[in-house]
Design goal:
alpha/beta; Rossmann fold; four-stranded antiparallel beta sheet; globular; cell membrane; ATP-binding; MetN_ABC_transporter-like; transport; cell inner membrane
Length: 272
């Protein structure tokens, strides 16, 4: 369903992504790992057309999305929602309006200017917030929420687009371990329950191993590993990160392993 062929991005003399190629046969959860500057963000930005590729193809369900223009490109961007490290919400706007922003691509300018949303969209936004356990915060300003809650609002906004693919660029890099786990659980659920493809850039190995069906390792713009979490041994990881024999996986660990405390947080949030 997705074929990436020799995808390349150059910024002047710097090759950020260098002839990346891989194929995905069915929706799955894919983690992309690699050190800072490896080209992970540039890859995601090319995929949803925030950045133009220099060369190569990216074929999704039979169409090279790199060739799409105008309304077709906007439709693809709606099919391919993106979540960012810094949430990118409108801080002073309430949560439900932030979620409704996920419908912007298919709404008219006037309706957008005056915040006119169809009733069914408002109900759907609240249903999505409920599903993510944050409906109790619907009327609050986004800036009043914790980082983890804000990221879940960003996920709700993405789901509002009913996307086929969710791209997440370091979705947990700004979160504490507990909130990181809540956000990763939600990303996994929207793959498991909805069948959406999720591609997440992750800065921690243990998260990639724990949540992803497949892991792609990038180093200096190239794909140097593509396999299952089980194949991602410490030796392979050392290679991806270009580290020496003293490489410690703990340095890339979020230690998000406390299910009891997570359940307590979820229950407390629902009760608020
Ligand atoms: N807009 C840009 N202009 C020039 N160079 C850029 C631009 N965006 C990225 N680069 C360069 O491309 C390379 C890959 O950057 P990219 O942000 O994709 O890496 P990354 O793996 O996502 O790293 P990080 O985890 O730090 O975000 C880097 O050398 C970076 O400096």
């Amino acid at each position: 369903m997705l074929t990436v062929e020799n995808l390349t991005k150059r910024f002047g003399a710097n090759t950020a992504v260098d002839r990346a190629s891989f194929t995905v046969e069915r929706p799955m959860m894919i983690g992309i790992i690699g050190r800072s500057g490896a080209g992970k963000s540039t890859f995601l930005r090319m995929m949803n057309r925030l950045t133009d590729a220099t060369e190569g193809k990216l074929v999704f369900e039979g169409r090279d999305v790199l060739q799409l223009k105008g309304s077709e490109k906007r439709l693809w961007q709606s099919d391919c929602a993106m979540i960012f490290q810094q949430f990118n919400l409108v801080p002073r706007m309430d949560v439900v309006s932030n979620v409704l922003h996920g419908t912007l691509a298919r709404r008219g300018t006037l309706a957008t200017m005056f915040n006119l949303y169809p009733r069914e969209d408002i109900h759907r936004a609240i249903d999505i917030l409920e599903r993510l356990g944050i409906a109790a915060h619907a009327a609050k300003r986004a800036e009043a929420l914790s980082g983890g809650q804000q990221q879940r609002v960003a996920i709700a906004r993405a789901l509002m687009q009913d996307p086929k693919v969710v791209l997440a660029d370091e979705p947990i890099a700004s979160l504490d371990p507990m909130n990181a786990q809540l956000v990763m659980d939600d990303l996994r659920r929207i793959h498991d329950e909805d069948g959406r493809m999720v591609i997440a850039n992750l800065h921690t190995l243990d998260t990639a191993r724990r949540y992803c069906d497949r892991v792609i390792g990038m180093r200096a713009g190239r794909i140097v590993f593509d396999g299952t979490p089980a194949q991602l041994t410490t030796g392979v990881a050392r290679d991806i990160y270009g580290a020496g024999a003293d490489f410690s996986e703990n340095a890339t660990s979020t230690e998000i392993r406390d299910p009891v405390a997570t359940a307590v947080i979820r229950a407390a949030e629902v009760a608020v």
